[in-house]
User: What shape does this take?
Amino acid sequence: MGTLSDSIERYLKGRLSRAVEGVIEIRRSEVAEQFDCVPSQINYVLETRFTPQRGYYVESRRGGGGYIRIMRIYLRQKQSMWESVCEEIGESIDAARADSLVARLEEMGVLNARRALLVRGALRHETAGISPPWDGVIRAKLLKSMLSLVFHEGG
Amino acid sequence: MGTLSDSIERYLKGRLSRAVEGVIEIRRSEVAEQFDCVPSQINYVLETRFTPQRGYYVESRRGGGGYIRIMRIYLRQKQSMWESVCEEIGESIDAARADSLVARLEEMGVLNARRALLVRGALRHETAGISPPWDGVIRAKLLKSMLSLVFHEGG
DNA sequence: CCACGAAAGGTCAAATAAGGTCAAGAAACC
DNA sequence: GGTTTCTTGACCTTATTTGACCTTTCGTGG
Assistant: This one.
């Protein structure tokens, strides 16, 4: 199912979710061997899927006894989360950053799969054919409006 | 029998109706091959027949392991209301018409008081300082995006 | 000390594998 | 006959995989 990168991503997230403290330490070469791929493939997965934008922090050390440490970053409570989300969106946001934000909110359980899809769909549909820099401005407005419904619903 | 596009549409809807969760993932090139046409034909079918207005959401990924994912949103009796609301909003809508639409949806129970307030707030806030005719266009996009979340929620 | 080699991980670019866009021409429909 | 919808193809953008080459760290023998 999916690409090699997807499998590695799933594997790492699986280990992370089972890890206390939300931190794991891996050997790049070991993971590469497990998935029968070149070591730099692991870097690729880390760079594309474990970014700060998506709520991960990665650090590493080279040399003998080297390692890669992956950390899950937990966010604050709902009230301040809405504020920080607004701040992150700002007056304009590009498609990639918007996507990462939606992915992160989905992983955090703020958006279920269905809503995440609707949000992504609306962002794409409503900004189609609009050229920079206005697409970013409109995307920001749409995102803030839709998420305001989600964050402020219920109690 | 209709056109090639009709056949492709029927084929995709057939697969969708048999899919659990109402989601399918296709390979554009594979479907194109099945119907012996160019790949971009698939895009045409998706753009013209699988729109949010009609209750479908499409997303895709390029590159290795790329795919096109199509989701059916079930609306039951609300489907026609959603369509007519979309039509009423159109590509642009002025503040007064937007307000009365929101009021009407609130009276009908589609929007509760809290949400109606959020929608009005977002419309006002996000179009403030934007001069005609763009305020109307943005208002329309905001309204459709927010209402899509409301209309398409639940099962 | 210090140099050096082994043991990590890092970088970058090429090759490959998708899907997207757009406009021109053809067909179907008033 | 004109308008709308469909079909095709040339060209574009993005994502993944692989490999050659680079840098950092640690331990050890001189």
